[in-house]
Amino acid sequence: MKKVEKVKPQYATTKFSTRMVEGRRFMICQNSEPGGKYYRDHICNTWTVVGNDANAVICWKCVAAVCEGPVVRASIPKSDKPKGWKFMKEYVATDGTVYHKGEEQTSLKGTLPVTVIEPKPEKKKLSKQEKSDAFNALGKDIEKLKVQLFHETRKGKKAELMRSLSKANKQLKKLM
């Protein structure tokens, strides 16, 4: 059996100071010495974890100082028209402008009545008790439908029971 010698890791030579802490190699930021390529009028004393091949490192603070911030775009102003007006066959704005599938029809301006959009009715949110009651009732209905389906022999009646069973399962899934 051959004897295996432990080899110490070879580190790259560097002019920046390094130190080992708990088996990890740390190196000081390049901006610890004035006059460097990325130097921005302050000396940085941040130590960063590096690999064995590293010759130099720039800390995240100095990188953030060198880079520009993200571009913030102005938000688009909200339209006075309702959702989906471009997809309507005919939409008449409050000022009388007529649109056919999103395209303005200047010749028809002021000739048609304003389009009235009815808001969708708000759904009542179920309480925990109502939800559990509906869940239990649907469970019982599904159980009955399965029993009927098991005993049914007629093809048409089976298809009808399958449809009602799948509807009940969809309702049950919505309650979950």
Alpha-beta content class: alpha+beta
By DSSP, the count of extended strands is: 6
Radius of gyration: 36 Å
What percentage of amino acids are in beta strands? 5-15%
The spatial strand order of the largest sheet comes to 1-2-3
Total helix count? 3
Could you report the average pLDDT, rounded to the nearest whole number?
A: 86
* Low-pLDDT segments: none
- Give the overall silhouette: flat
Summarize the biggest pleated sheet: 3 strands, antiparallel
Distance between the termini: 64 Å
Helix content: 25-40%
What sequence of helices (H) and strands (E) makes up the elements? EEEHEEEHH
Which helices and strands, and how do they pair?
Blueprint: E1 18-21, E2 24-28, E3 47-50, H1 60-66, E4 91-92, E5 98-100, E6 103-105, H2 128-151, H3 155-175
Antiparallel strand pairs: 1-2, 2-3, 4-5, 5-6
Helix pairs in contact: 2-3
Explained architecture:
It is a single chain. This protein is of the alpha+beta class and 176 residues long. Helices cover 30% and strands 12% of the residues. It has three helices and six strands. The protein has helices spanning 60-66, 128-151, 155-175, and strands at 18-21, 24-28, 47-50, 91-92, 98-100, 103-105. The longest helix is centred in the C-terminal third of the chain and has 24 residues, at 128-151. It is flat, with a radius of gyration of 36 Å. It starts with 17 loop residues before the first strand and ends with a helix. The model has no long low-confidence stretch (mean pLDDT 86).
